[in-house]
Design a protein that fits this description.
- By secondary structure, the protein is of the alpha/beta class.
- It has a single domain, classed as TIM Barrel (Alpha-Beta Barrel), CATH 3.20.20.70.
- It is 34% helix and 18% strand.
- The protein is built from nine helices and eight strands.
- It has an eight-stranded parallel beta barrel, surrounded by five helices.
- Strand 4, helix 5 and strand 5 form a beta-alpha-beta unit.
- It is globular.
- 43% of the residues are buried.
């Protein structure tokens, strides 16, 4: 771990936010998962996959979200080939933040400005194989950068260590940036990511496959607590 990331961990005052990631095959599954974490988190992330940008597809109909609002703020992780075409519908559905993949658009900075034009916070999501250098010019337009700890598409994958290095690099280059990590986040991994400078950790399988979402969220929060 770099000296920069160690200094960050030692001076961190804001708690790391744990965000449940909801990957659902139908509306019933989505509602069940939302209900299981209601009152236990500040935000949830809705995984939106089209079967094109990633080799999986989810249920996430913004029209239904508009008619049946979620009981907490939410962000959408747009793992799709056409993210800009979906922004209007998600904005109308009350989405707080849209995360678009750097690999899915030609002009990342302009795409982020487009997200913000719809009244949502704009986030960059970056795959494990994409270096920080590929997004540096667009970071100024981003409200958050989400580092992927796995290849997007499927829950339950093994965490890739490159994510820790990437978080530390982003923290050193952009001290004020909000850094989020998604994929493979479990107890132990969470602490190392927090030490490297992550502000938000997104966890799906560790929360929902445990059978006890409340206990899993408590365990992740305990893992990232910083001692005085």
């Amino acid at each position: 771990m770099s000296a920069a990331s160690i200094r960050y961990a030692n001076t961190k005052t804001m708690p790391v936010e744990i965000i449940p990631a909801i990957l659902a095959k139908d509306e019933k599954e989505l509602r069940r998962k939302v209900e299981s974490v209601e009152g236990l988190c500040e935000t949830v992330q809705i995984d939106v996959m089209d079967g094109k940008f990633v080799d999986n597809a989810t249920w996430a109909d913004p029209d239904r979200f508009r008619k049946m609002p979620l009981p907490m703020p939410y962000e959408v992780h747009l793992m799709v080939a056409d993210p800009l075409e979906r922004l209007d519908a998600w904005s109308l559905a009350g989405c707080q933040r849209a995360l678009i993949h750097a690999e899915s658009v030609d002009d990342l900075a302009e795409a982020l400005r487009t997200v913000k034009s719809y009244g949502m916070e704009a986030g960059i999501s970056v795959n494990p194989e994409t270096p920080v250098s590929a997004i540096e010019d667009a970071v100024a337009e981003a409200d958050v950068v989400q580092v992927m700890g796995v290849h997007p598409g499927w829950m339950g994958q093994e965490f890739q260590e490159v994510a820790v290095e990437k978080v530390a690099e982003l923290r050193e280059k952009f001290p004020e940036l909000i850094i989020e990590v998604d994929g493979g986040v479990s107890v132990g991994v969470a602490r190392r990511l927090a030490d490297a400078g992550a502000d938000r950790l997104v966890s799906g399988s560790a929360v929902f496959n445990s059978g006890a979402p409340a206990k899993s969220l408590d365990a992740l929060r305990a893992d990232v607590e910083f001692e005085e």
